[in-house]
């Protein structure tokens, strides 16, 4: 269910996915939604990922050169990073002026318990995202939206697929019950 909304968000902003693009874990969304992508890089914290072209912890990513990327696709990752403000600051720093961060975060999701090495720290709201991203990018350069409703949240928690709901059931958004929060932030010079 959450992937349905993530993919809608990225499709709506496909014009931002261009030039040199950074994505976490793999470049699936860059490949699917990118337009005029010149270079695709993959960020991971571990060297075990053969697809990774950049190994770094986003909260301490000093090794990634500043102003390197036109777009950074950061989906469903910030919940795994304890120092979210530092991660957002590094995301802004590595974007070129005019570069765009396309991020999604969970509001409701089961706990990630696969590994103690990658604990699940956070859930987010529209106000928390607006504040976190505006503090770094400036309020005028941040768009935040709540996506989902009570039915999509319940369906997600019960393991239903997006296709099991009607378009109306999926696409009616209730800011009181977001499944995910979407963020589009632009780096200004």
Itemize the secondary structure elements and their pairings.
Blueprint: H1 2-12, E1 19-24, H2 28-33, E2 37-44, E3 54-55, E4 69-75, H3 84-94, E5 95-106, H4 126-137, E6 142-147, H5 150-157, H6 167-171, E7 180-186
Parallel strand pairs: 1-2, 1-4, 2-3, 4-5
Antiparallel strand pairs: 5-7, 6-7
Helix pairs in contact: 3-4
Q: In words, what does this structure look like?
A:
This protein has 189 residues and is an alpha/beta fold. It has one domain: Rossmann fold (3-Layer(aba) Sandwich), CATH 3.40.50. The chain is 28% helix and 25% strand. The protein is built from six helices and seven strands. It has a seven-stranded mixed sheet, sandwiched between helices. The mean pLDDT is 95.
The Rg value, from CA coordinates, equals 16 Å
CATH fold-level label: Rossmann fold
Strand order of the largest sheet: 3-2-1-4-5-7-6
- Domain count: 1
Runs in which pLDDT lies below 50 for 5 or more consecutive residues are none
Q: How many beta-strand elements?
A: 7
Helix content: 25-40%
Q: What is the strand content?
A: 25-35%
- Total of DSSP H or I helical runs spanning 4+ residues: 6
Main pleated sheet: 7 strands, mixed
Question: Could you say what the CATH architecture is?
Answer: 3-Layer(aba) Sandwich
Terminus-to-terminus distance: 36 Å
């Amino acid at each position: 269910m959450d992937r349905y909304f993530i993919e809608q968000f990225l499709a709506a902003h496909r014009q931002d996915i261009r030039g040199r693009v950074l994505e976490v874990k793999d470049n699936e969304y860059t490949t699917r939604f990118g337009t005029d992508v010149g270079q695709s890089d993959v960020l991971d914290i571990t060297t075990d990922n053969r697809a990774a072209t950049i190994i770094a912890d986003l909260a301490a990513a000093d090794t990634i050169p500043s102003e390197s990327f036109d777009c950074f696709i950061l989906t469903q990752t910030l919940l795994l990073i304890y120092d979210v403000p530092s991660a957002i600051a590094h995301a802004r720093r590595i974007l070129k002026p005019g570069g765009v961060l396309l991020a999604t975060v969970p509001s409701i999701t089961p706990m990630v318990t696969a590994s103690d090495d990658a604990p699940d720290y956070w859930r987010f709201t529209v106000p928390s995202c607006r504040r976190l991203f505006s503090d770094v990018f400036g309020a005028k350069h941040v768009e935040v939206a709540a996506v989902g409703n009570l039915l999509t949240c319940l369906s997600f928690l019960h393991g239903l697929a997006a296709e099991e709901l009607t378009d109306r059931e999926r696409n009616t958004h209730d800011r009181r019950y977001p499944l995910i929060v979407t963020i589009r932030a632009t780096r200004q010079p």
